[in-house]
Task: structure prediction
Amino acid sequence: MKPARLQNQGFTLIEMMLAVSIGSLMLAATVAASICLQRSFSAVDNYFASHVQQVRIIDYLSRDVKRSYIVTTSTDRQTVTCIIPNYLVDNGSNQPTRATPTLSLVGNKVVANYQASTVNNVTTTQGSTSVSCPGLGLVSSHFSNANVGQSVVGTGIPAGTTIQNVSNCLLGSCSQATMSQAATSSNGNTTLTIGALTNVVYSVVNQSIQRRENGGITNIAASADNLIPVTSDIELLNTEFTQSTVTFLPRFARGGQSFLNNERAGTTIFSLTYLRNRRRGDG
Amino acid sequence: MKTQVHHGDNGNILICALCTIVIISLIGANVLVNCTRYYNITAKQLKAWKEALYAAEAGGDAAFDEVRKALDPINLSFTTDGWVSASPSPSPGPAWTKTISSFGQGGSLSTTVTIDKLTDNTGTIPATTPYYRIRSVGIARLFGLPRVGLSDQFFAGGPNFVANSASRGVGDTLLRKIDFKYDHFKATYGDGDGNNLVLSTVTYPQITRRIELVAVPKYYVFSGALRIVNAFDGPGTTGFVDSYNSKNPTNPNPSSPKVINNDIPGPNTTSYYGSNPSNSTFLADAHDGDVSVATKNFIEGGPIWGDVTTNGGNVTHSGYQISGTIDNNVPLTLPPLSAPDTTGFTATSSGTGTITATGTSESSPSGFVCSGISGSVTITNGNAGSPTFPYAYAKIVANGHITGKITVERGVTAEIWFTGNMNVKGEDLDNQNVDRGTQTPNPGSAGVPPSIPPTLADDPNPSRVGHMKFFGISPTAAGTTQTIEIDSPGNIFATFYAPSADITLAGNVDVFSAIVGRSFSGNGNAGVHYDKALNQVQIGVVTDYQIASYVEDVR
Result:
């Protein structure tokens, strides 16, 4: 009986090399495709994740700007300060109650305040922390001892300014006050809003976007894709509006700076928001 | 015999391919899940979040519309169109509420709004003029699968919600505060002030937004001599329009004015307090007799010491004697004046008689209603004997014409509202008050504080003119007009707010006043002298309401 000849005889070296080469190419292609697909998936995932954060930043800003008395932006337009009515009364029990609005006059127009008041006919001097008002009348607005430590906003008053002390008082009516920061302009007849105002600051810290409400920090967005919020505020007679854009650089973008700029511009989300309260100064 | 050959490795490639496909599919599926989540956030959650605000604002608009209707009592505000009294009634009250539901996509939106009527007791505005707090809650149903799309989880600290933002979560959870199973606000804050906390199950996942608006009265304040809705033809060719300030103690009493001749704006013109270089204290107050016309119809008689505005007119300095600025592109709107609420007013005779005013403030005047004033009516000061406050306030509503004599005694501030026409002589409107009250040497002005402490007998109103105020109620019948005709002799110290009335000053009548009318015509020596002390809210009239504050409760 003649033994059967084995059919899986060894390959020649040429065959082997050819097979290994083809196999390697196929494996490399598969691996490369997998990596590219994974990167692509990751980029898509990241794109949408960044988009969600874009929308969130815009929504946070719009919500706070709408209810502000005044909004100021830094020179680089990446820090936004909102002075907001202090609507909630903090009674320390984690159960804040709603404040009752009170009225005051600015000229002949009635304005509403929450835990704040207005002082009319105030004189400010550029570079000086002193402000004064006629204020000795029982019926006219004036500074008072209760103002010490409270926030103050008004034309020519930098954001975040507080009242340090009051003086020239008679029967509780004070005609002079000292602020924590100097006025940026002189004005002979301005109105100041003084009270426990809520101070909200948006800023970029490394790759996070932070919202600080009276010092309490919340990270509202964090991205490795260089989320860049830019806000400018435009002052009108009695109100103002802000224009905000938020962009990011998609991960799949590769190329020169011009290309990257275009890629970033393509992700722009724009928002225009008006302050709905009467403007209380220009900071 | 052939040996059978096994090809056990034939499927290796297929297995590898399948594994690769599986791995890539898993990655892709993960991406799809993530993208679905992001889609839910950017589409469904964002939609609901924004629509909840739209719903809240719709409620706020409905409430503001109701507040504006309240200016006219015949509109029966807060009692129709679904408005009901709020229960339980808040303090202060009263309050009304209304729910608008099932609007938006699939009826997914609803809003509940509450109006609180508030009163200012600080003296900023009269206590009789309310302002309103509008609280509106907008609710939007969140479409999509429950919990799908939640980007961040609730942190520990509560079963499904927690009280404070610090532990509630971050990112979209903190911003949008979706209620998947329970209404977190009612459970945590109750009615918003910590009352009536309740674990309330929501029918569908939802997003709720709460806004609060404050509607305050919008005052027409007498900030100029004349505000005319239609046509202006005045003052008289030998009269003039100028101004003074009764609060300024250096000014003479208008009853003995200082006449300045040959003064600007034209030769041979005259002003009571014109720019006499020898007395600059008059000059500061003399050139504010502003005239505003809501149309292009402007004809000048005598000189005007102040600014002039028209809407489409062709007024220039070269063709007119006007001392101030001219602007021919200024729109002016003056709404009709509704009748006041006379509930609780005392009915009185329309003929000869005496009305005794005992009200102690603008916000609590003595109220009288009559069918017209055809005889001689004297409004006496019922508080004249008071050692602390010898002043009185009256509000008279005449449902008819005024053709008789009206005397307002010293110390009385009288508002006289009328529905018909007025046809009197200047001397018939006898205002016996004087400027700067009776006791106060310095009632205060811009930059000059009043005496401290004020004497108890000070008149809070320094303007003689401000003690006699006429309000022409706009006719409600179509085609009906109202007229006010004042003839000589006699000068008048009174304000006129009658946006639907055609006003005529005939003959030698000087009106120390501020005038609002549909049209104005003056001839002869008829002139208008505006008292700048009238430029204050307390002497104005509420013409509308406006939103003065917007806040969102972001809890």
